[in-house]
Amino acid sequence: xxxxxRKTALRTSALMLSLGALLTxxxxxxADLTIARSVDADGLDPQKASTTQSLQVTNLIFDTLLTxxxxxxxxxxxxxxxxxxDNGKSYSFTIRDGVKCHDGSVFxxxxxxxxxxxxxxxxxxxxxxxSWGPISGTSVDxxxxxxxxxxxYGPFASFLTSIQAAFICPSSVAGxxxxxxxxxxxxxxxxxxxDSIKLEANTDYANxxxxxxxxxxxxxxTLMLKVIPEAVARMxxxxxxxxxxxxxxxxxxxDLKADSNFKVYSAELSGQQMLAAFTWKIKPLDNPxxxxxxxxxMNRDAYASIAFEGLVNTSNCPVAPNLFATDEALCxxxxxxxxxxxxxxxxxxxxxxxxxxxxxxxxxxxLPGWDAMHQIMQQDLxxxxxxxxxxxxxxxxxxxxMKGVNEKTDGEPAVWTxxxxxxxxxxxxxxxxxxxxxxxxxxxxxxxxxxxxxKLSGDARAAKIHEIQKYLMENAYAIPxxxxxxxxxxxxxxxxxxxxxxxxxxxxxxxxxKS
Length: 515
Fold this sequence. Notes:
Blueprint: H1 2-25, E1 32-37, H2 52-61, E2 63-64, E3 66-68, E4 74-76, E5 79-84, E6 90-95, H3 109-120, E7 135-141, E8 144-149, H4 156-159, E9 166-167, E10 186-192, E11 196-201, E12 222-227, H5 231-240, E13 245-246, H6 250-257, E14 262-267, E15 273-278, H7 288-297, H8 300-307, E16 313-314, H9 328-334, H10 340-349, E17 358-365, H11 370-382, E18 386-393, H12 395-405, E19 414-420, H13 427-432, H14 444-454, H15 458-474, E20 478-480, E21 482-483, E22 485-493, E23 496-497, E24 500-501, E25 507-508, E26 513-514
Helix pairs in contact: 7-10, 8-11, 14-15
Organism: Ferranicluibacter rubi
GO biological process, one term: peptide transport
Family: Belongs to the bacterial solute-binding protein 5 family.
């Protein structure tokens, strides 16, 4: 008996030694992560924050009622299930059991109602108020939050997945000052303005977001979001190991992409879409064939691979890939493709050629990647007999200028470029319904289609959105160029694993580990 016990003890000891030797060969996992960003948040109240940099942080602290998968389909969030009335004017959201706020209080239907009420209150001065749609009433029925709308609003479910639609806990506004208390994967710990924000993992977190694999608490215990305004200093901090992740410039991202010691991430689900547009009220750009010819001259592959360092993709639709009802293959059948010879033929038919070039302005704003794209675009247009003079402005001044330009019906014709983003194709409404974004609205027929898609849901709404996109493409009012998140890049050391970027350039750390 004593001999058997001794042999068992020896085997156990050998096993422990072997296990210990194995553990020493595995990389140790770190429980904290430091991210360097160029600017600080302007606030941590998601119902008052207006910048993406702020909403990237609040999205880590607060959850949304619904979530969205990478194909644009809507899934449960704080609501385990939901339903819409036949007339599209009322919704019921059943709040998941067992959801707790970071202070231990229960998040239930009453808490959800309080959050919606505050988001809609004019006194809140919510910069995203209009995106909530025509909500006319809120109520609670047991576990369900009931919302009544004055009219159907097709984009509503998509909006409730977005970083602009975060739900706060009642204790956030229990005192005189806002406290960032939510139900999300990370808890607020501290904030030193213009220096750092510290977040700690929510040990009670239960994940239902389809973009996240980890079912529970984030693997990282602490997130430190540091402000390092200078790009050179951020890169030095990354290369030295002072920080684990940074916001790189486009050029820096290209360099890091070629280095196996680092990883580069683009916001593939940003909902960002880049378009070329026209002063279509001014001759000869009132002719759709000339607009098509200009679109055929644009070498989108070169813009993606050269101007944007291969960190973006070409796109075919007026709205970004991965959103509801977006069908890249279908859009390709409606729009123009790169075909300089066909473009020359169309220009010749309209009376333009090498001896009689069409002179236009190429009105643009100054941003990394865009500048190089516009230079290539200028050469593309020259190849089909279009002399484009580039006129560059800073972003804010550019859009102010375009408001006036797009009102004109005579003068020098112009081609211009822009970007738009969102979680639903409804941003077509914002762009094209008269008067439209910077006065680019089209006509009564398009207005009617844009209004109608808002009142539909499911397949009927998808069909109407396709009809709108087909009209825009076949008449060449817009030339889709590139997607996705050209302006939202992240880079990390190769020791970081599991990081992703979600819709609207949100940062997802639930699955992150660091060796």
